[in-house]
Amino acid sequence: MSRIPTKDEILQWISDHPTQTAKRDIAKAFGIKGAARIDLKRVLKELEDEGHLRKRGKTYRDPDKLPPVSVLSVLAPDKDGDLFARPLEWAGEGPEPRVLMSLRESDPALGEGERILAKLQEVKGEDHQYLARLIRKIGSNPRKILGVYRKGAEGGRVVPIDKGNDKDYLVRAGNEHGAQDGELVEAEQSGPKNRMGLPQARIVTRLGDPSAPKAVSLIAIHQHGIPDDFPDAVIEEADKAKPAGLKGREDLRDLPLVTIDPADARDHDDAVWAELDPDPKNEGGFILWVAIADVAHYVTPGSALDREAWKRGNSTYFPDRVVPMLPDRLSGDLCSLHEGVPRACLAVRMVIDSEGKKLSHRFMRGLMKSAASLNYAEVQAARDGQVNEACGPLMETVITPLYGAYEALTRARKHRQPLDLDLPERKIVLGEDGRVKSVAVAERFDAHRLIEEFMVLANVAAAEELFHRNRPLLYRVHEEPSQEKMDALREVAQASGFTLAKGQVIHTSHLNKLLAQAEGSDHDELINISTLRSMTQAYYHPENYGHFGLALRSYAHFTSPIRRYADLIVHRALIAAHGWGKDGLSPEEIERLEETAKHISETERRSMTAERDTNDRYLASYLSERVGNEMTGHISGIQKFGAFVKLDETGADGLVPVRSLGAEFFHYDPDEQTLMGSDTGMVISIGQKVVVRIAEAVPVTGGLELELLSVDGASLPRGPRRAKGRPVSRKYNKGKVKRAKIKKKVERRRRS
Fold it and tell me: What are the alphabetically sorted keywords of the record (predicted)?
């Protein structure tokens, strides 16, 4: 819309979109650009003068409604014990609305007259107009603490489990919430933050024994705020769901689609099949089928299931448990493409030529029946000649053509040159008691790569389909790395004896040449890790900025809607684009696509951090029984406070504190990423092979401290000592001449 909207249209927009009321939001909604913004400003000013709108900061809103987040003043409890609050920002002409406080068990007590910040939900048919959830008291923002409770004579203490938090919290009598000595608890800071002595806290949740195996992932779940309990309304909605029928769908039950997953997979959201293309014009080409669970049929926009799935954003995976995005009734049953059971799906039929180039594709909403639920190991074994009972009947019609199609896609991949990282995936194996049994490198077969290539092609087809139909969607975006990160990677490469092209626009092919140089060398894993670290974080966005790592112009996630909300959005977009039903992408969802993209990008990062922290704790637990043992590794990072070492056997990352590096003072060069001894001239840099001794492993925090024994085969030298044995910290001249001398010395030692 290019015309200036009427006053009624503007008021309706503000009423329908209370969180998007800035002039910029309104201009964007009505397609107003350039000089027309001046006219929009005039209309908004008129509405303000007429009393229809009230400007607050840079936003406009209906004065007869409260904003979704408001400042309230708490009133005294009424005769029924209910707690109400008075809005302090009411500017309407009608009576002041009543706001009922909905307090959670963990919320602090509120007294009459206290001012709070609350999130409001408008309600109808009640004696109050809004329901309020406490965000925080005005002037306070209680800090959440996860730690171990230690009982004392008068109250006790909470000892935080966070690596970076070394200060205990005092829990006064009455604030223990029934916690027992040694229990894992969640607390929040109470009292003034800047008081002398220990800060105070009150316990809000008891989590149980911190040494129990289950506590490892529980710590991460609570520490990172990952929702792990489904509300009753969500479970009730899932339990009422029934299997989808054939109505409005294409019948794909005769196609021998199979699922190929890890042996311990609980859900199966993708199935595949391939056959040689009978068209003589496409000699050597294939027809590929990818069928994906139709989650959109069960999780409809605005439902309780949808709101909870949006909130979670994705499933989170730990060695001992999964925190799913959807209840088990859906994720493990109705949406899972189990063998021999009719299941609703969204499928894509793709035609490729003998070189793996996609010639065409067609999407459909169907009903399929999996011919078999296979795992990667047995499929690969069958391909290599060791055929079991499950794979035997499928060799000619399913497995052989799947590998034929994969070989064609491999040729296309080589031509495209996506980033070819080869990082060993270490799997933490737990025993029956829940403790770490071993740390193994997960085997990776062509069967894994086969499924990956099929999924990538299906994701590309989904992005292209929606783009050509001019439909909104969420792209998976991976932008090219920054010049600063490329310079840092180039330093690591040079220190390891390799080269990375300089002075040109970086492409994945340049990085692949570096990875090829390192392949098979002692620095193979280091270069792969350093290359991965140089990449930007992938994210979701309604705009298409391409996918650098995959070397693709358009890419969207379509193949895992059971565990990723982004894929559900793409499914709904396809449903709406093809007119397959009323459960497609709604106008409300389209309006908040940018918000959804930001939210699920954040939940993805939250899950990754939680998973990494959990693995760190499991590895620390495993290595705590090997304190004093010597191990080999590589320097993987340098900081002013020490060097990080990645252990070869387990892949665990440990810290060698600079205070433990002998008695001399070590100069940190952030540009060269080195530590250099002021007396011996010893240089510690990324990529060096080292031998270390495990000095300390703390399972509760995941902390691992190491003692450096040798670097590149040479024992650690010891500098001069003072009488008390403290390191000698010589004055470091930061002038240009002194810096140049040190840099030359570093280079000489590297060359030698």
Answer: Cytoplasm, Exonuclease, Hydrolase, Nuclease, RNA-binding
